[in-house]
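Possible regression after last week's pipeline update?

I re-ran a chain I had predicted before the update to compare outputs. Posting the input and the new output here so someone can diff against the archived version. Not blocking, just want to make sure nothing changed silently.
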Amino acid sequence: MLARIADEGEAAVRDYAMQFDNWEGDFILSDEKRAQLIAQVPEQTKQDIQFAYKQVRTFAEAQRASMQEFEIQSEPGVKLGQKIIPVNCAGCYVPGGRYSHAASALMSVATAKVAGVKNHRLLTAKDGSIHPAIVYAMDLAGADIILEMGGVHAIATMAKGLFTGEAADILVGPGNGYVAEAKRLLFGEVGIDVFAGPTESAIIADDSADPMTIAVDLVSQAEHGYDSPVWLFTTSRRIGEKVAELMPKVAADMPNHEVVQSAWDVHGEIILCDSREECAKVSDDYASEHLQVITEDLQWWAENLTNYGSLFLGEGSTVTHGDKCSGTNHILPTKRVARYSGGLNVQKFLKILTYQEIDESANLAFSTAGSRISRAEGMEGHARACDWRLRKYYPDTEWDFHVYDQKRYD
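New output (post-update):
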């Protein structure tokens, strides 16, 4: 699909939209239709989305404030600096298939907006039609253009700049396996946030934890899909056995119980550990997307756990809070990627750019060192760039190296 879209452009996208979504209308959501959809959103839903937006924006603003530009003088005559510049265009994918992920619009667009990104393209995947709550969240967060499109061809559309005239510099947002694979294949041509596999959630619990709370929270995350693993790491055999007993019962109460039960039967695990140190090691090995800790001495766990997408400390903190409204981003690494990367954040939309200014007085030290290192590496052209400056800035000094004779080139 990506190869065909690269060759045929918008015509291929139109064909895929008809094939998969039976859609043949305009892709860009008009201002009139945007307003009509927003008008359908109940006032309480708007207030809830506004509450979540405030939390996400506030946290993103704190992230942005923690990142600073600077300039230093490392040596006399040498200025080194760092600039922080946002990408020009972000493509934010908002899934709308099985569920209408209004919160995902806030997580991606609001974060990009705080970073200073000028243009945002958003897409939703639901038979070519967009859920009003998603449109409201997109609009509130500051979406410039909303495209009614989903799937692989939507990802390619953003990457290629089809229908909008501006290609995205980075693609962010969760999606199904096809969306995730399309992002992975396009990485390099564009940036991506994380490789997003099925949602993962783990709970660490000791003997002080409430088994029913654990079962409810594991079930809440298993509903993401048939392939969404949920795990319990515990130092208490009593807790482990009770949760194993409760899980089928709690799952059976769910309206989508077949999804939850399948996820638990095929991917669920309970791992009994001898000590909290072993439990922390197991957790770090799994490097789960979401990690809850329901134990005594929460501070110890906060200080000793190192691999997770987002951490939820104490019984009062459930993953739903992070998924929907607490303010930390819910677009997080899966498949053990948390060993080396965090989730979506303001920095993903920012480029850390460096600069330097080295004046004539500093060239004696830096050009002589640069010339010698270059020749040690066998890079004569690099060396001569430094040699030329030494000859130019210090004409009265005898240098034992190749010197360009400018008169030969005039």
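Follow-up from reviewer: compared with the archived run. Residues 2-194+347-352 form a domain with the Rossmann fold fold (CATH 3.40.50.1980). Marking as no regression found.
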